[in-house]
Design brief:
This protein is of the alpha+beta class and about 150 residues long. It has five helices and four strands, in the order H-H-H-E-H-E-E-H-E. Helix 2 crosses helix 3.
Length: about 150
Amino acid sequence: MADVDDTDHRLLRLLREDGRRTFSDMAAEVGLSVAAVKRRVDRLRDLGVVTGFTVQIDHAKLGWGIEAFTELRYAGSTTVQEIMRTTTGVPEIQAVYTIAGDPDALIHVRVRDIAHLQQVIDTLRRDGRVTGTKTLMVLGSWTREA
């Protein structure tokens, strides 16, 4: 576990709010010099606590307004690597979670409409390894920022 203090947690919160925030802005917010903030952020990156900086996108404004989670069940002999191969090549799949128990995997999907979702599910089923699916449509969401 990385050695992270309260100031580091405050810097992480500021970066989560805006990954493009300047060191100067963060320094003023936490009461440190710009150089001290830069050293701390560099240290957090070196420790692997900060793994990258990203942008948040409103997918609905780009025409990808339907979001769903689909449980996938595979034939008993399917390996985790095979599950990843059958799912990561599908551009509509945003994330893949292999899980213990039933089902074998949970995928996060973004599509244009219901017909598009059906096409994605049909594509996965045609692979031959998927033995069953169950899809849950997202009505709304909230994410805890750690």
